[in-house]
Amino acid sequence: MIRPHHFWPNAETAADNAFQQPADGRDPEAIARDAYDEMTRAAEIMEAHGVQVHIFDDTTRDTPDSVFPNNWFSTHPGGHVAIYPMFAPNRRRERRADVIEMLKRDYRVQEVVDYSGLEPDRLFLEGTGAMVLDHIERIAYAVQSNRADPVALERFCSHFGYEPMVFAAHDAGGVPVYHTNVLMCIATDFVMIGLDMISDPARREEIVERFTASDRVVVPLTNAQIAHFAGNAIELQGKNGRLLALSARAHSALTAEQRALLSNSVELVPLDVPTIEMAGGSVRCMMAGVHLARRPSPKK
After folding, report:
1. What is the pLDDT of residues 204-224, one digit of tens each?
2. 3-class SS at 290?
């Protein structure tokens, strides 16, 4: 997780991110301070649940979206790390060598595949924002957008062994969805997904069949629930089993029946991040998962 010191809704991403909210004259220092506190508290809650969190501080002023690190890198079992090409120029500055060096030092990293060289050709793939990865069935779900170029997606899938599943999705106003991870969350036993936003009925049915074939419960989310970031959640392993980290806003948007159904599989852990959500992302975007084997501690 990246703790921002100068958080601010990113003007370079506002054009195609309908989830962003304008600051409306609010004091920039107050917004930055609130975002800093929200991220700090979220990390503390995760650690209290037994999730190890690596925190990196971002003190720069030219990376307003740095609190969302899952877009620029991802990690994969077997010691693989991917670095991604980013759509907005100021988001490209979020990539940092110290994060990759920490992974190499503390975990078994065999290779780092860097796709950022695709940016001059305007081929973008914004990590596990643009893709939602089904690690069990090896499928990469991706909404059609300028954040998920099909050429870049094909390269990733060929290298990392995923089948691409691309589809169009729009909100109730017909605005295209910018990132797949605001639309769906894939967990071990269930999938939360905004089915009504998938434009092609045949594709929608195919996606549901893929999930049910792997014995997952499909939890449909309404457009209103998606707008409250109910799809932007992440399953993690805690000290007492699996948990689902999601925002307090998303948790409140779920029905009592949905919360009860999810609780059969995971512990729901709501995190209060309303300031950070102004930037058009939520809890899932704030966490870049580590799927690497730890190196043994050096003997003294």
Report:
1. 999 999 999 999 999 999 999
2. coil
* Least confident segment among 20-24, 52-56, 63-67: 20-24
Class of domain 2-286: alpha beta
CB 46 within 8 A of CB 209: no
Report the length, in residues, of the chain: 300
> What amino acid is encoded at 11 in this protein?
A
Which CA distances in Å does 148 have to 7, 136, 156, 178, 284?
25, 22, 11, 9, 18
Instruction: Give the integer Cα–Cα distance in Å for 98 and 90.
Output: 19
Q: What is the distance between the terminal CA atoms of the chain, rounded to a whole angstrom?
A: 30
d(CA 45, CA 299): 31
The whole-angstrom separation of Cα 166 and Cα 177 is 13
Show me where the domains of the chain are located: 2-286
Q: Give the contacts of 198 (CB within 8 A, at least 6 positions apart).
A: 167, 168, 169, 204, 207
From CA 280, how far away is CA 229, in angstroms rounded?
9
3-class DSSP state of 107: strand
**Nearest-angstrom CA–CA distance, 195 and 297:** 45
Strands (E), the chain: 2-4, 56-58, 73-76, 80-83, 111-114, 131-134, 139-143, 163-167, 184-186, 190-193, 217-220, 234-238, 241-247, 267-271
Q: What is the pLDDT of residues 65-118, one digit of tens each?
A: 999 999 999 999 999 999 999 999 999 999 999 999 999 999 999 999 999 999
Query: Greatest CA span in the chain, whole angstroms?
Result: 61
pTM: 0.95
